[in-house]
Amino acid sequence: MSIIIVSGSGLIGRKLAALIRERGHEAVAASPSLGVSSLTSEGLAPALAGASVVVDVTNFPSWEDAAVLEFFKTSTRNLLAAEATAGVGHHVALSVVGADRLPDSGYMRAKVAQEKLIEAGGVPYTVVRATQFFEFLGGIAGSVPDPVRLPTAPMQPLAADDVAAGLAEVAVGPR
Ligand SMILES: NC(=O)c1ccc[n+]([C@@H]2O[C@H](COP(=O)([O-])OP(=O)(O)OC[C@H]3O[C@@H](n4cnc5c(N)ncnc54)[C@H](OP(=O)(O)O)[C@@H]3O)[C@@H](O)[C@H]2O)c1
Questions:
Q1: Is any ligand 1 atom within 6 A of the Cβ of residue 38?
Q2: Domains and CATH numbers, the chain
Q3: Which pLDDT score is estimated for 149?
Q4: For 120-140, what is each residue's pLDDT tens digit?
């Protein structure tokens, strides 16, 4: 089975490609640095030709409300259109646990918009939701002024390795 990892150059994408190959499937990484952009559609059609599954682990470097919303909407629309043309049988996307419960966050609104487009898109899909990655905690702490105060509420971050392992199971499994 040929599985295209859109943003295969990122944190999760690189780990996922290795796990898919370990399971005996072809994993092809696609991202702007590899000549494929889901935002502009550059290189998308040839990258998806012959693919059975597309895993979307794209991310946007900015959390600016309008920009991140536009990124996830345009990227998702472009991907779904290219998948429909290529006859891709399963779209797998990585989203965030509780995204729909944080409407004050522009990033979470963008992830909810991404999920809604996938649900309405017509390509068979699985949305996998992960909590924040352990690897991201330093970035979160660094994005707020000192001192950092943790809430008393329980938190359950996930290691990126575990996120990639869960995604790999979904990607190679039945839809
Ligand atoms: N961080 C968290 O705690 C967390 C929690 C739950 C879910 N998630 C989700 O996990 C996903 C992956 O996150 P990550 O941390 O692995 O990402 P990341 O390491 O920041 O990687 C970002 C990726 O997006 C690619 N990209 C940027 N613009 C693109 C475009 N126009 N077309 C295609 N690819 C593009 C980059 O490609 P280049 O390298 O070529 O620029 C890179 O591969 C995201 O969807 C995020 O919402 C994250």
A1: yes
A2: 2-172 (3.40.50.720)
A3: 86
A4: 999 999 999 999 999 998 888
